[in-house]
Design goal:
With about 300 residues, this protein is α/β, with parallel strands linked by helices. It has one domain. The chain has 10 helices and 12 strands. The strands form 2 sheets. A 7-stranded mixed β-sheet has the order 7-6-5-8-9-12-10, sandwiched between helices. A 5-stranded antiparallel β-sheet has the order 1-2-4-3-11, covered by helices on one side. The radius of gyration is 19 Å and the shape is globular. The protein starts with a strand and ends with a strand. The mean pLDDT is about 95. Bound molecules: S-adenosylmethionine. InterPro entries: SAM-dependent_MTases_sf. This is Methyltransferase domain-containing protein. It comes from Prosthecobacter vanneervenii.
């Protein structure tokens, strides 16, 4: 099988605009190589995806999962305590499946950590595009905070705030701040279901989330209303958004069905659109980015701002 490499032109095609020289350099460092799968393999993988859809043991997201997340990020915290290494912030769930979604098909990564690297690239693209001059950068559902740590390379002065409902997340972030890895970094407790009214954004701040709001299923109203009250300059999401995928496409609909099976985010974009019609907010971007894990294209890009 011929090995292909993701090129700057691929990134520009999925994002719909030119990318910076820095991002092209990052892409070259990440060296994202893959091969195509055969039609027979595709059939096997469709079967695997369908079996997952009817598997009663698959865990669903929701309020009851906080213990699982505490345990998961607790493992990252233990690694950080032992090593003091900021790489301890990288989640242990990447690279679980040998196949990923890329530009409307499944491909087989050759490079290590392909799925981890591609989401890092996409998030760095959004940081360059929307957060480079922000005074505050707030990541909601940040987990161990590995994206936030990379924001510093793009914005040297912003206050970086990582918010998550697990206390393990705050231990990691505040541990990193205290150990001098980034003194202008803070971990704060935040629950999408019960937003913390004492949180105030610094003027000129950007809020973002990556595969985190996904966890609330249909319960996103509290978060939206919170943002409308607190008014950050901009809100950027990389989340699963059913509405930007194609209704009559098998590969896309396997993603949508899996997302629903896991009780991931749903109805979010239609609700933002409704509020936009009411004049409460403005949506600047809504698009798929054609990359994802085996089961789900979970990183569609939405950018919006509360109206003032
Ligand atoms: C799939 S992880 C994503 C973590 C990180 N954003 C990333 O990109 O790797 C989902 C995150 O959402 C957090 N989360 C889940 N439900 C939440 C809630 N109700 N409030 C705040 N955070 C929540 C979890 O603790 C976890 O850190």
């Amino acid at each position: 099988m011929t090995v292909q490499t993701i090129q700057p032109a691929d990134l520009e095609a999925i994002l719909g605009e030119p990318v910076s020289e820095r991002l092209k350099q990052r892409l070259a460092e990440f060296d994202l190589r893959f091969t195509e799968i055969t039609p027979q393999e595709r059939d096997q993988y469709i079967l695997e995806a369908v079996r997952a859809l009817v598997n009663p043991e698959i865990k669903v997201a929701g309020e009851h999962r906080i213990g699982d997340w505490e345990r998961g990020w607790g493992e990252n915290f233990d690694i950080f305590c032992k090593t003091g290494n900021p790489d301890a912030a990288v989640p242990l769930y990447f690279g679980k499946h040998p196949i990923v979604r890329w530009r409307r098909r499944w491909v087989r990564p050759v490079s290590e950590s392909f799925d981890y690297r591609i989401i890092c690239l996409l998030v760095e693209y959004a940081m360059e595009r929307y957060m480079k001059d922000a005074a505050g950068i707030y990541e909601f559902g940040c987990g161990p905070g590995y994206h936030l740590l990379r924001a510093r390379k793009i914005n040297p002065t912003a206050r970086l705030v990582g918010l998550d409902w697990t206390t393990a997340s705050q231990k990691i972030l505040n541990g990193m701040a205290a150990s001098g890895i980034d003194p202008n970094l803070e971990g704060r407790n935040f629950d999408f279901y019960h937003p913390d009214e004492t949180l105030e954004f610094l003027p000129n701040s950007v809020a973002y989330s990556v595969a985190a709001l996904e966890q609330v299923g249909p319960r996103h109203e509290e978060f939206i209303q919170f943002m409308l009250r607190k008014k950050p300059e901009l809100v950027v999401h990389f989340e699963p958004i059913d509405e930007v995928l194609e209704k009559d496409d098998l590969h896309d609909q396997l993603s949508v069905l899996y997302s629903n099976k896991r009780n991931y985010l749903r109805g979010y974009l239609p609700r933002l659109e409704e509020l936009e019609r009411e004049g409460r907010l403005t949506i600047h971007r809504k698009q798929r980015v054609h990359s994802g894990s085996f089961f789900i294209e979970g990183h569609s890009l939405i950018v919006w701002s509360p109206n003032r």
